[in-house]
Amino acid sequence: MITVDNLVKSFPARGGAVRALDGVTLEVQAGAVCGVVGPSGSGKSTLARCIALLERPDSGAIRVDGTDLVTLDGNRLRAARRQIGVVPQGDSLLRQRTAAGNVALPLETAGVDGPTRRRRVGELLDLVGLTDKAASYPDQLSGGQRQRIAVARALAANPSVLLADEPTSALDPETTGSVLTVLDRARAELGVTVVVVTHDMAVVRRICDDVAVLDGGRIVENGRLLDLVSDVDSRTANALLPALD
Ligand code: ADP
Ligand code: MG
């Protein structure tokens, strides 16, 4: 479904360049939830931003359903971007818009008519369990509710891929659960492929089928979570052990 092939991305820095991604190769199965984990600065957000086409890699390929996204431009690039819904890192809702208004924004941009828009926003608020918060503004919502609205907004244009960058990093464990439930429903009910960037192994344990471990811009481990946890030498198993009961 998503294949990332030898992706390289550098940023200019004092005294040379930082290779944020140093030849990343990765496969995400269609309809799966893939966790991207790794220490701070390992390249997780850069990888997510490249897959979301918000950042252009120096070299390498990103294929979604066989199409290499890196080579697209103009209308084809815009169409490919709509296939990928993004929950950005941090607080990303517009404060001057209600929850429903935030979810509607991508539909307004895409020129979807009013009645269709309202119906779709209703479905999405229902999916994330916040129908009763439609008219609330972001500062009237809890952190977890805001993230669930951000997920609903990312799903508005019916993407085939949902990318969430640290969607639970500011949340307590209980609230984290409500956001993970929503990501899981997106996969189960809408069939989207989910990529979730996280430094929290409890998140991986709860919802991921596959996991990719990044370190210094390189993938040091990638595979089915079940295979990796049963391999005593794997980094994923070692990192997960403290998170297992
Ligand atoms: P993570 O999300 O895993 O914490 P990032 O992808 O944000 O890591 O960053 C990876 C590396 O790339 C870091 O060394 C970071 O400083 C650098 N980097 C990321 N974005 C930029 C940017 N826009 N300009 C310069 N350096 C960047
Ligand atoms: Mg990051």
Automatic annotation (TrEMBL):
Keyword ATP-binding recorded: yes
UniProt keyword terms in alphabetical order: Amino-acid transport, ATP-binding, Cell membrane, Membrane, Nucleotide-binding, Translocase, Transport
Gene Ontology molecular-function annotations: ATP binding; ATP hydrolysis activity
Signal peptide span: none
Residue span, ABC transporter domain: 2-241
Keyword Cytoplasm assigned: no
GO biological processes: amino acid transport
Identification of the protein by name: D-methionine transport system ATP-binding protein
Organism: Kutzneria kofuensis
